[in-house]
Amino acid sequence: MKLSNFGKKFTGDSGIVELMDDLSSALSENPDMIFMGGGNPGRLPAVEAVFQQRLEAILADPARRHSLFGVYQSPQGDRDFRRQIADFLNREFGWGLSAQNIAVSNGSQSAFFILYNMFAGVMPDGTRRSIHLPLAPEYIGYGDIGLSDNFFTATRPSIELLGDHLFKYHVDFSHLASAEDIGALCVSRPTNPTGNVLTDEEMAHLDAIARSRDIPLIIDGAYGLPFPGILFTQARPQWNDNTILTLSLSKLGLPGVRTGIVIARQDIIRAFTNANTVVSLACGNLGPALATALFDSGEILTLSRDHIAPYYRERSQHAVQCFRDQLGDLPYHIHKPEGAIFLWLWFEGLPITSQALYQRLKRRGVLVVPGQNFFVGIDGDWPHRHECLRVSYAQDPDTIRRGVTIIAEEVRAAYSG
């Protein structure tokens, strides 16, 4: 089979392909696997009950049922849904949005594919621009969606040791200032994989840098503000006319409906919609149909505040304590958990690579994600890249405890040779 350059790039192996293949296999072929990889949200009965009520109401109404299954929506997304989102954000934050500032995508991943390739790659004058990640490690799914080589650049973080086996990455603004040929800055907040929440001051600094360079600041809010609000520290939602904020329904508990939300100034939304028409033709109907009333009533905030954030805060604290109990005096560090649904583990001086550790754990029936694939845009052989793991704590406490025990056994075996 002869493939184009596009075909070779997008049909090959990559970190995100391995991750999703593991997810599929674990769910369908080995139900006993302890699943601490991937981004599947936890099951919250109170939240599932709300979605069930919404779906039953839609299915009981013939007109709404037909609109769910029998018609194409606009490639920009259902107008009523976009209007409800705009009205909600204006009520809560005074952002002055209209439905024309909102677009819907079939999941955030497809939105990033379009947005990133809109702003980076080969430019009309033959020059090249990159998407720059001010704080690596970053989301594994970014790494392979650029249509040209050397698509991402990144600034290596500074590392602060906090004591009690905790540490924290910080944006190294002194090195970020020297980054060149950038088409956009992008951060996830909270950061996937580490759970780092950039401060309001850091976000303001990044916004000022982006404005000074006349490039957009893209904020991936899949785990963050204003919903699903999986944050354990104080932070404010950020948006202005130079910001592209992407949100998702996935971590509310709806990953299967594949609904992403893009918030930007109108010229960016028009360009995105045109590209989305070519790539996707139309947006899916189910996610907007389920969520429209949540924005209208403000219930989306109460679900986040009263159910989703407390659930993950408790799971986070439990997972940290499990690792402290099991890892003992080993040279380990846990990134300070400030949000999202993961712990980021750094095994300083690990004698094997995180990829090798991942394979050993997989054979023991525990799925995690090796760290090196998250250092998108970081050049050079930095040993730290191969000493980290991402683990999910979304499952029930007993499952997490069993998984942590096996992880600790394999890490201890690696250090002991």
Please sum up the structure shown.
It is globular, with a radius of gyration of 21 Å. It has helices at residues 5-11, 15-28, 45-59, 62-69, 79-93, 108-119, 173-176, 200-213, 266-280, 286-297, 299-327, 354-363, 397-416; strands spanning 34-35, 102-105, 121-122, 128-133, 152-154, 158-163, 166-170, 182-188, 217-220, 243-248, 260-263, 332-335, 342-347, 366-367, 369-370, 388-392.
Give the secondary structure arrangement, pairings included.
Layout: H1 5-11, H2 15-28, E1 34-35, H3 45-59, H4 62-69, H5 79-93, E2 102-105, H6 108-119, E3 121-122, E4 128-133, E5 152-154, E6 158-163, E7 166-170, H7 173-176, E8 182-188, H8 200-213, E9 217-220, E10 243-248, E11 260-263, H9 266-280, H10 286-297, H11 299-327, E12 332-335, E13 342-347, H12 354-363, E14 366-367, E15 369-370, E16 388-392, H13 397-416
Parallel strand pairs: 1-14, 4-5, 4-8, 7-12, 8-9, 9-10
Antiparallel strand pairs: 2-11, 3-4, 6-7, 10-11, 12-13, 13-16, 15-16
Helix pairs in contact: 3-10, 5-10, 6-9, 11-13
Characterization of this structure:
- By secondary structure, the protein is an alpha/beta fold.
- The chain folds into 2 domains: 5-9 and 12-47 and 303-411, Aspartate Aminotransferase, domain 1, CATH 3.90.1150.10; 71-296, Aspartate Aminotransferase, domain 2 (3-Layer(aba) Sandwich).
- It is built from 13 helices and 16 strands.
- Strands 2, 3, 4, 5, 8, 9, 10 and 11 form an 8-stranded mixed sheet that branches. A 6-stranded mixed sheet has the order 6-7-12-13-16-15.
- Helix 6 (108-119) crosses helix 9 (266-280) and helix 11 packs parallel to helix 13.
- It is globular and about 65 Å long.
- The chain starts with a helix and ends with a helix.
